[in-house]
Amino acid sequence: MDDDPTVAEVVAGYLTRAGYTVDRAEDGPSALARAAAHRPDLVVLDLMLPGMDGLEVCRRIRGRGPVPVIMLTARGDEDDRILGLEVGADDYVTKPFSPRELVLRVESVLRRTRPAATEHPLYAPGVQVDPVARRVTKDGTELALTAREFDLLVFFLRNPGRAYSREELMREVWGWDFGDLSTVTVHVRRLRGKVEDDPARPRLVQTVWGVGYRFDAAGRERPEEAV
């Protein structure tokens, strides 16, 4: 879904040649209608759409379930990128971009959302994660996590007690050797808002000053401030 027909055509062509079935929408309302009629495996969404902006489309799509969303934007401002992540986008690509790069991003997101069928459930105080179904519950209530939030939580659950820098989390969780470190900060904050009883006083995802973050599988309270 892109506000520029030429960009949309090029993106659709590259994704089709990569083996994906592509459904294009010209504006926000039609994108929502198509997503509701045929739930997609992934949505590539332009920030600037006619009829309804991409942020609102993303909010509504994410409100219906955990569909991965990659946001396209012509804006290079950090606030715009963070806002896209805040409303639930799993990744973003800034125009102008290489269509081949976008295909690789799509492949990466989809690969993360298709775990091996032999994975066992993971647990933390009050939280249960099913990696196969990609389902998270807190105190028996299912949580709506984005693909990137889910991957971060699973990584923390599998590696409790060790402090990781933001650079390490970008590389180990999402396979990026470079990128905006604020992406990690945003997703930690969003994850805390969903799995912590009090996000301002996190028990599970702990800040390690001068380093990054550590997951406390026992959920012990720390006197430190969330960042």
Automatic annotation (TrEMBL):
Name one matching Pfam family: Response_reg
- Per the record, DNA-binding region residues lie at 119-217
Mind listing the UniProt keywords for this protein, alphabetically? DNA-binding, Phosphoprotein, Transcription, Transcription regulation, Two-component regulatory system
Q: Name one GO molecular function term.
A: phosphorelay response regulator activity
Keyword check for Membrane, yes or no. no
- GO biological process assignments: regulation of DNA-templated transcription
Which segments cross the bilayer?
none
Q: Per the database record, which ranges form the Response regulatory domain?
A: 1-110
Supply the name of the protein: DNA-binding response regulator
Which PROSITE patterns does the UniProt entry name for this protein? Answer: OMPR_PHOB, RESPONSE_REGULATORY
* PTM annotation (4-aspartylphosphate): residues: D46
The record's annotation in SUPFAM superfamilies points to: CheY-like (SSF52172)
What species does this protein belong to? Streptomyces fructofermentans
